[in-house]
Structures are given as structure tokens and as C-alpha cells.
Amino acid sequence: MTPYNHRESMVGPSVLGPWLLDKDEALPVLKYAFDKGINTWDVADTYSNGESEGILGAAIKHYNIPRSKLVIMSKCFQFVDEEKGPIDPATLTSNNGPRVNRVGLSRKHILDAGGHDVPPKEIMKALNDVIESGKVRYTGASSEEREMNPDCNYTGVGLFPWSSLAAGVLAHSWTDRTDAREQKDPFLKLLFRGEDQNTNRAVVDRVEELAQKQGVAMANIAQSWLIAKGCMPICGLEREERIDQAVEALQGTLSDEEIKYLEELYVPKMSFPF
């Protein structure tokens, strides 16, 4: 695995989200990313209801990219509606509609039924069986960071922060809402434009301030901060320009004072439930 571990999963029919790329647009972007050394691609069956996985496969075949030179990370943590298209994240707490399966149970109830009663050994055995059967090389976990991050750093387990640009919020001024994702993505509004907007805005303002001082994109500052923490950010890169910025972030450095300045106003938040 090369050092260039960045996400390339902003792909899927544009009808599913105006910030996504159709197949014909996505293929050359994926090739450009590979040529730049980005060989780790992050997808999931739930991204664009599986379309992103299919587009990755098409890119590998179209450009004859050796499979041995790619690391593909996928997930099986959420639901996929095979008939009605994308599911609005705003309906995640609903017990009606597309989240109800063929036997009348909502995904919410199915997940609750798993609960905390399942013995950890049983969970880990199931994951290990997937590895031993040859279906995957490694397994991972997501979003439990307060205790796990220090342990991962101590034991040498790699960390790949998702949504490293806060769904694009860290890539532009706080008051700039012209981006299509800012206007249409309920997930972005839920996580980053919610109750604690004053703190979030203060952090974004400082990212913008440092970017202007260094003459770089705001995304470079945000990603350089993560890299300084020993992480490799997962990034949504939909244009060649964004890919170049992500690669440049590997060369960027932040001083200890700048890192402290970025972190100074941060207020811990409640963990997100996945």
C-alpha cells in the first residue's frame, strides 16, 4: 500500500445527488487518481445503491489497472434499496417506507435486535471467518474514536478518517453555500450545520485564515492537520484539481503552533451512532 490512501468514491449517477459523477465523468477521474499514486479506493454497497462499486469495477477493466496494485475498502454496514433508488438519510429514524423489509421489520429494529447482547467473541469470530474464507484481506471498524484512536496509535493500527473535509464544509468559507452538496445533502446538514454552529464556524474560519496565509486551498490545511495526527484522510475527489490538492497536502506541514491554533476552539461532540 502506498502512502497515498485517499478516497475515490464520489461516483454514482448524478440523479442520486448533484455532487456525484456519472460513469463517463468518473472513469477519467479515477484513472487520473491512480496515475497520481492514489491506489486505495473506499466504497460501500450503500453508496449510490451500489453504483459506486460498479463504476470502480468498470474503471479497473476499462483502463486495465492491475488489481494487485489497488486496495479497495468496502463496507456492509447500512441498507440498500434495490427497487426505489436512494434512501434519504432524513428517514433513518422512521419505521415506515423503504426501510421496512419484506417481513415487515424496519432496519432500525433489526439493528436494535443485535444490541450489545452478542458476545464480542462471536462478533470477532464472524469477522475472522470472512478473512479465512478469502473474501477480504483485513477487517476494520468505524467511528469509535475516543478510546480506540490512542490504542490504534499504540499498536500500529492504521487510521483512515472519513469525511475529512466535513462533506466539503472545510473546503470553503463558512458563509459560502453555493456548493451543490451544501444545498442538497441532508447528511451534511445533520452533522455539520446543526446545533453547535458557532464552534464549527470558528474552526472553519481558522482553517480559512491559515489557508490564506500559506496561499493554499482550505482542503490542504484540513488534510495536513489529519496527516500530522498520523492519519491518512479519506477524501471525496470529484475533479482533477481536487486530486492535485490532496496529493499536495502530503507535502504540506503545519507548525505545532498552527496545529494548536486550529484545535483551540474545538468542543467535543456526542459520538455519531455508526
Automatic annotation (TrEMBL):
Record key words, sorted:
Oxidoreductase
Which Gene Ontology molecular-function terms are recorded?
Answer: oxidoreductase activity
Asked if the keyword Oxidoreductase belongs to this entry, the reply reads yes
Superkingdom as given in the UniProt entry: Eukaryota
Name all NADP-dependent oxidoreductase domain ranges.
Answer: 21-144
User: Would you indicate the residue range of the signal peptide?
Assistant: none
One Pfam family, short name: Aldo_ket_red
Designated name of the protein: Alcohol dehydrogenase
